[in-house]
Structures are given as C-alpha cells and as structure tokens.
Amino acid sequence: MSGTGTIYGVGLGPGDPDLMSVKAHRLVSNATDIAYFRKSGRRGRARTSVDGLLRADMREFAMEYPVTTEIPLDDPAYAATLKAFYEDCVEKLLAMARAGRNVVVLCEGDPFFYGSFMHLHSRLLGHCPVEVVPGITGMSACWTATGQPITYGDDVLCVLAGTLDEESLVARMREADALVVMKLGRNLPKVRRALERAGLAERAFYVAYGAMPQQQVMPLSQKETDDAPYFSMIIVHGQGRRP
Fold first, then answer.
1. Among candidates 176, 167, 189, 171, which has minimal Cα distance to 235?
2. How far is CA 144 from its chain centroid?
3. Is 127 found in the same domain as 24?
C-alpha cells in the first residue's frame, strides 16, 4: 500500500461543532478531500456541521443514498440496492486513495455506532489504510439534554432500534433498567405502545435534535403528535443504586 492515501472515518459528534474532538477538528480543517452521506436533494447534516472549518481548495464527494424509507427494510430489494450503492462508493474512495489522496469521510455521531461508514469500512479493509476517529454519540447528547444521568450504580442500559417489532421492543424494555430508543420516525406510535406495555411510559422523555440549535426536550406524555424526525430518541433514566 506504499503511496496509497488513507481513508479516515471521522466522528463529528452529535451536531454541535464544539463537541467535536480535537483530532476530528484537525483532520477536517486540514482535509483536501472529504466525503459524506446525504439524502438526494439535501446538503446533509454531516456536511452542514463542518461549515466554516474547511479549506477553500477542498474537494467534495457526496454519497447520495439511493433509498431511505421508500422500500420496506425487510424487502430484499432494500438490501440489494444499498449493497450496490456502498460498493460503488467504495470503488470511488479507493480510486482517490490509490491516487495518493487522503479522504476524510464525515460521520455523524460515532462512525461505529449505527453509522453508514461501517458498511464502507468492512469493504475498504485490506485495500487501503483506514483509520476511524470516534465521536460523541447522539444518545449522549440526548440524555445530557434531559439534565439527568442515564444510569446509576448497577443499572443495565439497553439501546434499541425503533424498527424492531412491538413484541421484541416490549421484551427488551422489560429487561432494562435504563433505555435509549433510536430510529423513531414513523415508529413512534409503536414505541409508545411498547413503553406503556413495559410500564415505562411515565418515565420516558422525548428528545429531538440533541445538542443542536433546534433541540426539543419533553416528557413523552407531553408530546401530543406522533411525528418524529430522524434526529430524535426516547430516553428512560435508570433508578439504580446511589450512595
């Protein structure tokens, strides 16, 4: 791999530039090539969060998702479409690396926590140098926004995806002391029902856009609508052992 550039998967944190690590800030501000995921027709949250940090001569590679919610997750076409997309992105990133260019891939939150970069990482390994820079997760920003610790003492924290079926959600919720539910969106009504069945609805908080200018925090019981943006979560705090 002599002379080959490095692909950096850089965690930008939850959206506030002040919560970016020193290493991430250095890599982003010195980058000659950046890449980032975005929905077609959008700038992308990762790209927007680094406005003002980039070199004037920096080159951009926008990786536009071919599908987000248009195809059901359990439809084989969904996996097949994304597989082809990730493989195409990897080929383009490898072409940059083989030309001796270092590429900083901008990643919301942490690259290895429910992030799209992990699908590039597994395909890049062995073909070029790859380095991952961890970042503060969105869930850390969300539970901090509630003003309460997420866990105490021996509390067991469970992180769930709202895309799970209702029965699975209920079963996992009943086993947890503290809880984070991600990927709400259209799944919020189902998550509400699961929380009620698990006896956790009264302790649940709804947080949207944690650590971002449009942050919203409220007890879930006060949220009157069932709409939820991509950057939203349910937080249930642990009640465990305290000195």
1. 176
2. 16
3. yes
